[in-house]
Design goal:
The protein is α/β, with parallel strands linked by helices. The chain is 26% helix and 16% strand.
């Protein structure tokens, strides 16, 4: 099992720039000539981008790193269970750049550009090099919507990846949100710290400082993604008293074994990241090869109960298709017996009857 605390050093660099085309992938030795026709077809539908820092981690094309980001011919095949908007973002967008699903919070999507295009992304129909960036007028319209909806207390900046903005634009957004008395909490969800850690420099970290409750949520799916460079980028944020949470997607061939998931959770805690969410894969088109059934995911998490500290324990969640929101789907440990009494299942699998509760 890969050590969470001392990951192996990355192999020598395979690219000096972001890999964006099938030709780039072929030159880097990440695909074969036989794959080119099918991958050119994929490229007509979905973008590719693999920054050098992430490409350097790929040992083989189908290892847990390469599998996440190297395109596959299977992506053009859509299963009947898959949906271009699997969590209903479009239907819940009152103005461009805003998604309002929950009463007390809203998503702010200032751009639809990412440093890294994951092959399982639930927004893969929307993001890409041609993905829109809110211009000044559209951004102001989105901010005005937040100003007038005083029941919103938390803004979650997502996209695309908010840390792809310039530090100047990020600072302007922070100042605008800080000027809204009803906004108490700001969250930024990002892949940048592990995908392109150099982008999260001191200037960007300074731009995130605010008097509001500010949180950075880093998307990381495998322990090897938390390189020394990634940890240094995360430390720049932590040094400014901004807590960092981790979110991951349960993915076949990436983190779907007890060993891989345990290493991922331990690596996050070692980097002072509190694991927050383990997402059930959203059924975006062409993502079937990553699917892990919910029951298997529950058994996987249950196998770690008692082995991994509670600090490292994420909430396993399902985003109900159609925009109905996230619900926890963790394995259950409390059961009602035939006599109406409660029984609890211990980490070792033994079942214990609890004393009858008062009242």
């Amino acid at each position: 099992m890969t050590s969470a605390v001392n990951p192996p050093p990355p192999r020598p660099a395979t690219a000096s720039r972001t890999l964006r085309s099938v030709t780039d992938l072929l030159a880097a030795g990440l695909v074969t000539p036989a794959q080119v026709p099918a991958l050119e077809d994929v490229a007509r539908h979905y973008a590719t981008a693999i920054p050098p820092a992430f490409a350097d981690l790929i040992e083989t094309p189908d290892d847990p790193i390469g599998r996440q980001v190297i395109p596959d011919g299977a992506e053009i095949h859509t299963d009947t269970t898959e949906d271009p908007d699997p969590i209903g973002d479009d239907a819940l967008s009152p103005v461009p750049g805003i998604v309002h699903r929950y009463a007390d919070r809203a998503l702010l999507k200032p751009l639809l550009v990412c440093p890294l295009y994951c092959r399982f992304c639930f927004r893969r129909e929307h993001v890409g090099p041609g993905g829109s960036v809110l211009d000044d007028a559209a951004l102001e319209h989105a901010l005005d919507w937040l100003r007038t909806h005083t029941g919103i207390h938390e803004v979650v900046m997502t996209g695309g990846d908010p840390l792809m903005l310039s530090a100047r634009r990020m600072r302007a957004i922070m100042q605008a949100l800080e000027g809204m008395d009803h906004i108490h909490t700001i969250r930024i969800h990002s892949r940048v710290p592990v995908a392109d850690p150099g982008r999260l420099d001191d200037e960007m970290a300074d731009a995130l400082e605010t008097t509001r409750s500010m949180w950075l949520v880093v998307h990381v799916n495998h322990a090897r993604e938390l390189t020394p460079q990634a940890r240094a980028a995360i430390r720049r944020v932590q040094a400014r008293a901004i807590p960092v949470l981790g979110q991951s997607v349960l993915l076949r061939g990436v983190n779907d074994t007890p060993q891989a998931l345990e290493a991922l959770l331990r690596a996050q805690v070692a980097a002072r990241i509190r694991p927050y969410y383990l997402h059930q894969l959203d059924p975006a088109p062409g993502t079937a090869r990553f699917h892990v059934p919910i029951r298997e995911g529950q058994r996987l998490l249950a196998s770690l109960r008692g082995r991994v500290t509670g600090i490292a324990w994420p909430t396993y969640v399902l985003d109900i298709p159609g925009g109905h929101g996230k619900v926890p789907i963790a394995p259950g440990y409390l059961h009602e017996g035939p006599d109406g009494t409660l029984h609890a299942t211990a980490p070792d699998g033994t079942i214990h009857r609890l004393a009858r509760e008062r009242g």
